[in-house]
Specification:
By secondary structure, this protein is α/β, with parallel strands linked by helices. The protein has one domain: Rossmann fold, CATH 3.40.50. It is 42% helix and 16% strand. The protein is built from seven helices and eleven strands. Helix 3 packs parallel to helix 4 and helix 4 packs parallel to helix 5. It binds NADP nicotinamide-adenine-dinucleotide phosphate (NAP). The site of NADP nicotinamide-adenine-dinucleotide phosphate has 28 residues, from helix 1 and helix 6.
Length: 249
């Protein structure tokens, strides 16, 4: 138990993308601090094994691109836990393509996963949280949402859309005491790059993070996310320098 997170003890959360990377680290950190976690991804077996290691957690397999599955997942969480106080919309995937080469079907899929799925999950939990007198929704965007990067517009624009939805919802839901926050992770050591769809071959070495900044461990981002749930800050950045206006990498 971490003293800074003690007020989370006994609460319930849904974490999407809990089978890997940032979502897995977040689910572990929440469970360590006494939160009962609904573990969401497509990988049923992985989630069931994970739930055996995280006391009070439940595997709630769902494909976040399928709205009926998203609704069913939230209903199952409500049935299992009797309440949902926290939603971490973390499941996501990259798609890199120049505008001219962007495949419309793939673009739609990425928007279904990175934007529409989180929107549907928010819509499903809002009435539950309102009835409880409040809650926390944390949506995982990306540092790329703060930039316009050639060859990355499908992904970065989806994350910019998610940030826009989050900050509008924050104001819309203020009176209901539902606090909506958006997190902008920097490059993080997960399976994200391996899972990113690339329209064009990636030249050797170009994906190596270099310069001043080293990639962050998933646990570092999980700390930011859980601290954000506690603080209720509107926008949470992996690093302060990300707050500076930036146009390129
Ligand atoms: N890593 C980075 O550098 C970085 C930087 C900025 C932002 N982010 C964002 O951080 C979030 C987490 O990514 P990560 O880095 O942890 O990547 P990751 O290791 O690839 O994890 C992605 C997670 O999303 C789940 N997922 C993918 N498609 C899904 C679907 N259709 N339905 C339900 N779950 C699905 C995956 O689970 P299954 O495959 O089991 O379904 C997995 O748990 C993403 O939103 C990503 O955009 C990452």
């Amino acid at each position: 138990m971490d003293a800074e997170f003690s007020k989370l003890q006994g609460k319930t959360a849904i974490v999407t993308g809990a089978s890997s990377g940032i979502g897995l680290a977040t689910a572990r950190l929440l469970a360590k601090n006494g939160v009962r976690v609904g573990l969401v991804s497509r990988s049923k077996v992985v989630l069931e094994e994970l739930s055996g290691t995280l006391p009070g957690s439940r595997a709630l397999p769902a494909d976040m691109t399928k709205i009926p599955q998203v609704k069913k997942m939230v209903a199952s969480a409500q049935k299992e836990f009797g309440r949902i106080e926290i939603l971490v919309n973390n499941a996501g995937q990259g798609y890199d393509a120049p505008v001219e080469k962007t495949n419309i079907s793939t673009f739609r899929y990425i928007y279904d996963l990175n934007v529409i799925g989180p929107l549907a999950a928010m819509q499903a939990v809002i009435p539950v949280m309102r009835a409880l007198g409040g809650g926390s929704i944390v949506n995982i965007s990306s540092g790329t949402a703060l930039m316009h990067l050639p060859g990355m517009s499908p992904y970065s624009s989806s994350k910019r859309a998610l940030a826009g939805i989050s900050l509008a919802a924050r104001q819309e839901l203020e009176a209901d005491h539902i606090v909506v926050s958006v997190v902008y992770p920097y490059i993080t050591l997960t399976n994200f790059e391996k899972n990113t769809i690339h329209a064009l071959p990636v030249p050797e070495g170009t994906r190596e993070p270099g310069g001043r900044y080293q990639p962050d461990p998933a646990e570092f981002v999980a700390q930011k996310i859980v601290a954000g749930i506690v603080s209720g800050e509107a926008e949470i950045f992996s690093h302060d320098w990300m707050k500076e206006p930036r146009s390129g990498a």
